[in-house]
Specification:
This protein has one domain: 2-Layer Sandwich (Transcription Regulator spoIIAA). Helices cover about 45% and strands about 30% of the residues. It contains 4 helices and 4 strands. It is globular and about 40 Å long.
């Protein structure tokens, strides 16, 4: 699955909205990182990740988002994620519950877990 990223900017309010559609995974993360980095480098007060059409996220995608969030905070700005689907929201809930704790043997084990968890939430919804 591919990832489409659309950026819209509200200069007056110093807001950049980055809309994601598709899958943010190992294949799509590098191009998304370049796109998101360009937005972060502009120094908007708020970078908003709109995940309404994001269908899947892997550990590679999470790394890109957390790296950009850290850079954004360091610059004195903010990053937020909105419109997360239940299975994407579940990934973020898990990560908030396990800060700074390595509970997976490697990235493949983490991605396998995230795959199963997202599939389970989708099936229940």
């Amino acid at each position: 699955m591919n990832l489409t990223t659309t950026v819209s900017v509200d200069e007056e309010n110093s807001l950049a909205r980055v809309a994601l559609a598709g899958a943010l995974n190992t294949d799509t993360a590098p191009a998304f990182e370049e796109r998101l980095q360009a937005v972060v480098d502009e120094g908007y007060a708020l970078n908003l990740l709109d995940m309404k059409d994001l269908d899947y996220i892997s550990s590679a995608g999470l790394r890109v988002i957390f790296k950009a969030a850290k850079q954004t905070r360091a610059a004195g700005n903010s990053m937020a994620a909105v419109n997360r689907k239940p299975h994407i929201d579940k990934v973020f809930e898990i990560l908030k519950a396990l800060p700074d704790m390595a509970v997976f043997t490697d990235e493949q084990e983490l991605d396998d877990y995230l795959d199963a968890m997202q599939a389970s939430v989708r099936d229940d919804g």
